[in-house]
Design goal:
With 301 residues, the protein is an alpha/beta fold. The chain folds into three domains: 3-87, Arc Repressor Mutant, subunit A (Orthogonal Bundle); 92-161 and 268-299, Periplasmic binding protein-like II (D-Maltodextrin-Binding Protein, domain 2, 3-Layer(aba) Sandwich), CATH 3.40.190; 164-266, 3-Layer(aba) Sandwich (D-Maltodextrin-Binding Protein, domain 2), CATH 3.40.190.10. It has ten helices and eleven strands.
Length: 301
């Protein structure tokens, strides 16, 4: 029994017509198709279909044979796919992580520096809290990550890619929103939206700034992520201190203003990797970090 016999039989059974199967599905002459099906019935040893004025109808034997024919053809197709897949060299993988929101700036440029490697490389991307990115690097699930400099991750190597100033985020109709820059003293007594322990590095920077300047804040809420902080600012009419990249996500109801006077608090964004990672792709990526930084900086000029 040949595979073409099975294909012909299934095509005719599904079309319900010898003519339709021959001309539209199999692109063969009808006499030849009829001969092939007679050969199949002879080999099986029983009629599989009846030919009448209303077209082709399967016999009980034909209906039973159809299920097995379809299964056999699907297994043959699967075998071919498996063989072709096995013949291909497996692609190297490179896992990139991003502090949620930072991928807007850094992912396109990261892919640019990897473009020559992409045909032979499978890149995976994840967006997470910075402490989770550190865990991913430490357990080998990530090759590189754009994140904060997390404490207690001695096996990670950090390189600063940008030192971000913090800005005041407040409702667009707030009286202070009309100012080009915000004097910290003007924030005294205003409801304050802090970041939670999900962002320990940022929380430390903000706490240090509040202590250092003696800023009189009234803690209203703690936000677990950027979207939550922005929503709380809009709904409670409070303010938040957030890295400047938050400006990329502000709705019309919320604005960001620089901090006036003295040095605004800053927080570095770093690209990090495990010091024991010997990936050749990682080595290439790290060798082009300067280009990566330059490309992102150019976009913001």
């Amino acid at each position: 029994m040949e595979l073409r016999h099975l294909r012909y039989f299934v095509a005719v059974a599904e079309a319900g017509s010898m003519t339709v199967a021959a001309t539209q599905k199999l692109h063969t002459a009808q006499p030849s198709l009829s001969r092939q099906l007679r050969d199949l019935e002879y080999e099986v040893g029983t009629p599989l279909m009846t030919r009448g004025a209303r077209g082709i109808e399967l016999t009980a034997a034909g209906r039973a044979f159809l299920d097995h024919a379809r299964l056999a053809l699907s297994q043959v197709e699967a075998a071919g796919v498996a063989a072709r897949r096995a013949a291909q060299l497996p692609k190297a993988t490179f896992a990139l992580g991003f502090l949620t929101g930072q991928e807007m700036d850094w992912l396109p440029e990261a892919m640019h520096v990897l473009r020559d490697e992409l045909p032979k490389l499978e890149v995976t991307v994840s967006s997470q809290f910075s402490p989770d990115l550190a865990k991913g690097l430490l357990n080998g699930k990530l090759d590189a990550a754009f994140m904060r400099h997390e404490q207690g991750a001695d096996d990670l190597v950090f390189r600063v890619v940008v030192d971000e100033p913090l800005v005041v985020v407040l409702p667009s109709d707030h009286p202070l929103a009309s100012r080009r820059a915000i004097d910290p003293a003007a924030l005294a007594g205003e409801p304050f939206i802090h970041v939670s322990a999900t962002a320990p590095a940022l929380r430390m920077v903000i706490d240090d700034y509040v202590d250092r300047t003696g800023l009189d804040v009234t803690l209203q809420h703690e936000a677990d992520n950027l979207a939550m902080a922005i929503s709380l600012v809009a709904s409670t009419r409070g303010f938040a201190l957030l890295p400047i990249y938050a400006e990329n996500f502000l709705p019309g109801s919320v604005v960001a203003r620089p901090i006036k006077g003295g040095e605004a608090p800053r927080i570095p964004l770093v690209v990090a990797h495990h010091k024991a990672n010997t990936s050749t792709t990682l080595k290439l990526f790290l060798s082009r970090v300067d280009e990566l930084i330059a490309r992102v900086s150019k976009k913001h000029r």
